[in-house]
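Tutorial handout. Part one gives the primary structure; part two gives the three-dimensional structure as tokens.
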Amino acid sequence: MRVIYLPSALPDLVWFRAYYSDIFPEGEKHALLQRRAVERLIRENPFIGKSLDADSEARAFPILRTPFRFVYLVKEDRIEVLRVWDNRRDPSGFQF
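Part two.
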């Protein structure tokens, strides 16, 4: 399956890159490698992520050793990344 990022994830990717390039550059290389590893993992095992709730088809999986997680939907032929959520943010503001 291929992984595609929906427009709702683009501001999150901008923040992910800014966080690691401007605020925590020491962790940038590791975070990028981890993000790619998780992309591969969900591509190969789409249902590995935890369901967000019973009413949603969305799943979440952490980007290991970072404060971020993928929030995604499994479609027939692709994985749609809805958000690359920073877990330090207020969860009440979570939207996709």
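Part three, for discussion. The first strand starts at residue 2 and ends at 5. The mean pLDDT is 91.
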